[in-house]
Amino acid sequence: MKIAIASDHAGFELKSSLLSLLRDEGYEVVDFGTESFNHDDDYPDFIGKASEYVSENGGFGIVIGKSGAGEAMVANKYKNVRAVLCVNEENVKLSREHNDANVLSIGSILTNPEEAKKLVLLFINTPFSQEERHKRRIEKIRDIENGR
After folding, report:
1. Would you please indicate which residues are annotated as catalytic (active-site) residues?
2. Where exactly are the structural domains of the chain?
3. What CATH number labels 2-145?
């Protein structure tokens, strides 16, 4: 499984740390930038590319910014993307089990690198519950995406 990852300048350092973790864990990671601390970088450019990748190819995405809020907003504009801003383990677990979230958004000022690593691994390794009520709700989200 490939994992798309992207950040803005405020998430660049955390992204670098998470890239190392994911590669060490044996995941193939597609890095959509940014490649620097350039404050002129606009997060929708990078987050959009990673989200489009997940939309078209499946798998997981990890997007990182200062708060993670704007990054989640951008990611959720793409069809088949269910992005969630996660700040703790329970939040991550429920987003996967109940919502089949496929993009994790992290705020670099809200989550330290060690906690972020735990959240990322929990996100990737927590399966969707497959419960009918959760499937039904996700289907309703798809209906909204498709204008039904």
Report:
1. 71, 98
2. 2-145
3. 3.40.1400.10
